[in-house]
Amino acid sequence: MISTASAAAHPNIAFIKYWGNRDHKLRIPANGSLSMNLAPLETRTTVSFDTDLKSDQLTLNGEAAGGQALERVSTLLDRIRTLAKINTYARVVSHNSFPTGTGIASSASAFAALTLAGVTSLGLELPEKSLSQLARTGSGSASRSIPGGFVEWEPEGESSYAYSIADPEHWDLVDFITLISEEHKKVISSEGHKLADSSPLQKARVADTPRRLDICRKATLDKDFQAFGEIVEQDSNLMHSVMMTSDPPLYYWQPGTIEVINAVQRWRQEGLPVCFTIDAGPNVHVICPAEAADKIRPKLGSLIDVKSILECTPGGPAWLLEPEISGV
Ligand code: DP6
């Protein structure tokens, strides 16, 4: 017997970042975070629980995957199996519309889509809060790819989950993801989170997070780009300071990363509303209000180290796909 369902989710970019866990296994974060879903980028995933299978199987972007990737998927499937009180294995076929492992959090959209497809295939109907909690245990940032638009993730307790603070239509922001390198990153976030506490700066970063969250949430709700840009850049710099001062240190930046940072600062001095933020990779997210996008786009295109650009706007929540149109 086969029970199947397909779902999709957008990745997200954190304006106030999650770095470090209080509980690594359950992914209870050290601090709250705030993000925006990134349309049109998406992961599409089909989950089929099949009584004929002898183990879980995973296909990622057309290739069979094993090792850590499969283990992580199986751990989430185990949680879903426990909820549904079954022990049937599943086939998972997943496809990203964007390069994987480059600091665009593909694990966020992947585990959000996996959660929704897995739960639905077994006929379980869970509220958004429970889906977010479940997705969080697969990848922390996936908790923020379940709800739509602008999303905040509460750090508190085992039930830690994320919820929308504003719809995607609330604020017309554009995120130009400048790809400096498409190489698979050397230290994945899950390993990075474990190193966070070895930096003497992490305590101060975590203690100051409620202040940054308040400023960022207010700036987002008020659509105050200047206040928004200042806090988003400070938060990114704080996280990278922790990364660079952990033991061993993590350096995600490349020369091209600095080229984009310097350019953003220059354009701002020239009067353009624009800011940057960087995740666990060399690529820079250059963010501006939609009105400024036509001015920023050609300028980014002329930077030497920018290999390509993905242009994103605020995206909706994770959604179900009809199996025949899932394309996976
Ligand atoms: C730098 O959610 O990818 O993108 O929970 O181990 O899967 P795991 O980590 P992940 O960490 C994201 C780190 C970040 C910041 C953020 O998205 O908040």
Structure description:
This protein has 328 residues and is of the alpha+beta class. It is built from 9 helices and 16 strands. The strands form 3 sheets. Strands 2, 5, 10, 11, 12, 13, 14 and 15 form an 8-stranded antiparallel beta sheet that branches. β3 and β4 (28-29) form a beta hairpin. The mean pLDDT is 94. Residues 14, 17-19, 27, 33, 105, 107-108, 139-141, 189-190, 193, 279-280 line the site of ligand DP6.
Kindly summarize this structure in a few lines.
By secondary structure, this protein is an alpha+beta fold. Helices cover 35% and strands 25% of the residues.
Topology at a glance:
Elements: E1 2-9, E2 12-16, E3 21-23, E4 28-29, E5 33-39, E6 43-50, E7 57-60, E8 63-65, H1 67-84, E9 90-96, H2 106-121, H3 128-138, E10 150-153, E11 162-166, E12 173-179, H4 189-195, H5 202-207, H6 209-222, H7 225-244, H8 255-269, E13 275-277, E14 284-289, H9 293-301, E15 308-314, E16 319-321
The structure holds ligand DP6.
Give the helix proportion (percent range). 25-40%
Q: Low-confidence parts lasting 5 or more residues at pLDDT below 50?
A: none
The average pLDDT is 94
Percentage of residues in strands:
25-35%
Order of helices and strands: EEEEEEEEHEHHEEEHHHHHEEHEE
Major pleated sheet: 8 strands, antiparallel
* Total helical elements: 9
Class by helix and strand content?
Answer: alpha+beta
How many strands? 16
Work out the radius of gyration.
19 Å
Distance between the termini: 20 Å
User: What is bound: which ligands?
Assistant: ligand DP6
